[in-house]
Amino acid sequence: MANQDHSTDPPAIGPTDTPASLPNRPAPSGTSDIALRLGQSIERQMLGTRLSGLAQGMVDLLDRAVADRIDDARRWAAEPVVAACLTGPATVAAAATTRLTRLIADRPLYLDLWIANADGIVVATGRPDRHPGLTGIDVATQPWFRAALASGPGVVATAEIAAEPRLGGATALPFAAAIPSADPTAPPLGLLVLFFDWDGQSAQLLRRARQRGGEIGVRCLLLDRADRVIAASGPSEDAGETFALPTPLAPAGWFADRHGILFGYARSTDRPDCPGLGWSGVVARRPDGDDPIH
């Protein structure tokens, strides 16, 4: 058999040679850069997905809170004492005030609760000690009053989140439900409206999302249907400004802006028991640091 020249073959690994002891050979040019970029891309993907999940959690909690408020308004509007307040003597109206006060006494999430007749005149309130002098005011021009009467019993109307001067200027989200007559063919007797404490409750929601996101360097926003900021975990001057989400977008996801900041988002959706109000949750964070986001 002819001799074979093995002078160019790689050396065999002997009993004392291990891969770790072999000389390190540099990776081909560009390989390390590709691996670094791939690792950064995976990290961004994971962070973006997590931020989107936090935004979805905010929206889910907000939708649940709205569903509970709708249920309260619908149920309380159907109480006999509420209807009697609009059909009986003044003593019944006094009893209705007592009932309203008891309903929200241990519910700080409500700023107040009113009963108004079909002409829009408030006849009873739930916090007369905190907001005196409201009996007799006219609310017939309020959007929630017109919407609730037009919708009829069983349907709860809402309106834009706004400061309510008659409640000390607090920012409120109203929920109004028509009060049914004993005669199902008759128009509603009036309506019951409860005012959800938007500032206090949304602040708790944003704080919870920030804590779950690591808090430092995390920015949380809630947007209305027109992408107007209605709550933010930061400077109050953001409220009312517009944060335009890129379009078209899926119901939930994430994206990065030109500064490299990652934004996770989620939009509220309609459910059989609660119509979505078109809100969006946004959670932002820098992928490479904890610097504040403005």
Question: What does this entry look like structurally?
Answer:
This is Methyl-accepting chemotaxis protein. The radius of gyration is 30 Å and the shape is elongated. The chain starts with 30 loop residues before the first helix and ends in a 9-residue tail after the last strand. By secondary structure, it is an alpha+beta fold. The model is unreliable at 1-25 (pLDDT under 50). It has 2 domains: 43-65 and 200-285, 2-Layer Sandwich (Beta-Lactamase), CATH 3.30.450.20; 69-196, PAS domain (Beta-Lactamase), CATH 3.30.450.20. The longest helix has 47 residues, at 31-77. The protein has helices at 31-77, 80-87, 90-104, 143-151, 198-213; strands at residues 110-117, 122-125, 156-158, 162-164, 170-179, 190-197, 218-223, 229-232, 252-256, 262-267, 280-285.
Cα radius of gyration in angstroms: 30 Å
If you average the pLDDT, what whole number results?
81
Q: Given the C-alpha coordinates, what overall shape results?
A: elongated
User: Could you name the CATH topology of the largest domain?
Assistant: Beta-Lactamase
Using DSSP, what is the number of strands?
11
Structural class: alpha+beta
Provide the CATH superfamily of the largest domain.
Answer: PAS domain
Estimate what percentage of residues fall within beta strands. 15-25%
Distance N terminus to C terminus? 80 Å
Helix content: 25-40%
Can you count the helices? Answer: 5
**How can the largest sheet be summarized?**
6 strands, antiparallel
- Write the H/E string, N to C: HHHEEHEEEEHEEEEE
- What is the number of domains? 2
Please state the second-level CATH architecture of the largest domain: 2-Layer Sandwich
Protein name: Methyl-accepting chemotaxis protein
Region (Disordered): 1-31
Organism: Magnetospirillum fulvum (Rhodospirillum fulvum)
